Amino acid sequence: MNIQLTSEVLDGLVLSLLTHQDYYGYAITQEIQKKFQISESTLYPVLRRLKAKKWLTTYDQPFQGRNRRYYKITKSGYQQFQAILEAWKKYDQNINEIFNNTESEAKENDQAGLHQRTQNQSPWTE
User: Fold this and answer.
1) Ramachandran region of residue 65, left (φ > 0), alpha (ψ -120 to 50) or beta?
2) What is the CATH number of the domain that holds 75?
């Protein structure tokens, strides 16, 4: 199953990568593609938006007769990354609590002899 990455998550992923080193656009795409399905056409608008918000700056470096545009995180970009990271931690904690609570409730119901669905039983009526 492919869960869609929101723009906030994409912002966080890009900013996270850039906290470690500067990257050119295609290299950012390659790094993110190691974990998620994302196209270059998805990433470049994100980079333009982050630059417009002054969370990134750019500079060009010659490479094989052409220039590569590198992206560098700014101080305000780093602060935004920290805010996204804190929000993500809370989001992740809440998701895990719901998932774990569902599992533990099922075990408690089973121990109490309450009806619970079997693994193959549908949660809806037909």
Assistant:
1) left
2) 1.10.10.10
